[in-house]
Amino acid sequence: MKRDVVVLLTRAPYGRVHVPEGLRAARGVAAGFDRHDVTVVFTEDGTYAARSDVDRDALNMPGHIADLREQNGAMIVDAAALTERGISTDEIADDVTVRAGDEVSARIRDADCVLDF
């Protein structure tokens, strides 16, 4: 049974494994037998991982992102969290969509399953 799954990336990208492990989980859920609809949400300090100047290779992100995209997964960043951290929308990577805080909240609330990293 196909489900709507949200993977929250809430921790800063460097010095921890949460961002690459969250992306790995998202990729696995999206590519699984039921091919769930997966949205990765960069929020709180996870917003730093959505920036275009992040070294994605050092964080082991490119393969996970490519596989997630192949399975039609989406990546969004919380605009409210960006504002709180002084991050401009111009700093966000091209493959990440900026969404308003209320839209992000609704996506999380309406998901069948939420995984927090």
Describe it for me?
Helix 1 (18-31) runs parallel beside helix 2. The chain has four helices and five strands, in the order E-H-E-H-E-H-E-H-E. Strands 4-3-2-1-5 form a five-stranded parallel beta sheet. The model has no long low-confidence stretch (mean pLDDT 94). It is 34% helix and 21% strand. With 117 residues, the protein is an alpha/beta fold.
State the separation between the terminal residues, measured CA to CA. 24 Å
Helix-strand pattern, N to C? Answer: EHEHEHEHE
Structural class: alpha/beta
Low-confidence stretches: none
How confident overall, as mean pLDDT? 94
Give the amount of beta strand, in percent: 15-25%
Trace the largest sheet across and list its strands.
Answer: 4-3-2-1-5
Features:
117 residues; alpha/beta; 4 helices; 5 strands; 34% helix; 21% strand
Could you provide a short overview of the structure?
With 117 residues, this protein is an alpha/beta fold. It has helices at 18-31, 62-70, 79-85, 101-110, and strands at 4-9, 37-42, 74-78, 97-99, 113-116. The protein is built from four helices and five strands.
